[in-house]
Each structure stands twice: as structure tokens, then as C-alpha cells.
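ok so for the tutorial part 2 we go from a plain amino acid sequence to predicted C-alpha cells. step 1 is just haveing the sequence, like this:
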Amino acid sequence: MKKLLFISLFAASNMLAHAAHAHVTLDQASANAGAYHKLTFKIGHGCEGSATNAVKVSIPENVSGAKPMPKAGWRIDTSIQPLSAPYNSHGKTISQDVREVSWTGGPLPDAYYDEFSIQVKLPEKAGKVYFKVTQLCETGSLDWAEIPADGQTAKGLKAPAPVLEVLEKTEAAHHH
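step 2 — the prediction. this is what the C-alpha cells look like for a chain of 176 residues:
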């Protein structure tokens, strides 16, 4: 229960800071390198009051095996594209992978928020991974695609791309 309280307090303070323009954010902002991870994108508002009827997420090339979670009332489309560098997975050569996931339907009214989830395998290397999100509304659209330059934070950006901090694998993870 304490953890829940802490999370909601943290969320509340975060929301106050971003009340002016709520961004599309990831539910969990960090995960371990090489892990299978559920990315949950929170859509907190429409486009200037207009309801959201499509959400598109770009999957960076170092993130593999994207599997979207179905949502009642939304159709899922995935775009599979060739990889610039094929890789090996369970003895198979993988030369193409999901590069974009989109949900179309809803609509999600501006007064509500919702979450869109994708399971992925994270890169083996630690670092920040950005997921560009396009939010299409009945009127207008929003591109959450800005990536800060090296050494800068997303603070000044109007429409920052959601970011996941991929953490170094811990020693414990190596000893099965």
C-alpha cells in the first residue's frame, strides 16, 4: 500500500509540473538491458480538446519483437520492415521486425486518459531509448517525437518523445 501511495504522490507532483501540456509518457521509465518489457504509453489528453482516434508508436531498431496488446474498441496494425542489420534469435536469422504499431478506433475523449501497451525485447546496451508517438485526433494531431540533443534534457521540448532508460544488467541477472 505504501508503494502505491508513493507512486500516486509522485504522479501527482509530476502532473502538476506538466499540467500546462501533459505529454505522452511511459508508465515505467526504466528497465533492464536485454529484458522483455511491457511498454505502456499513457495518452493523457486529446488534441486541444478533440478526441483521440489513433495512436502510432515507432519502434527503434535496437528494440525487437514488438507485440502489441489488444484493446477493446481499437484495431491494431503493425508495420514490419527489413532491419539494417539482421540478428540471431533462438537459432533463426531475423531480418525484419515490427517498426511501427498503431491502434485505430476509440474514440478516447479528451476528458479521459488511456494506456496502450506493447511487449518488446530491450537492447543489450544501456542508454536512453526514444519511442516516437503520433496521436491522431478527430481534429488535428500531435507528434510526440522531439528528442533532446546530447547533453540536454527534454525539459524545454514542447512535444518530447517518450523515453525509456535502459539500465545496465546487474550482476545478479547473470547468475541463473
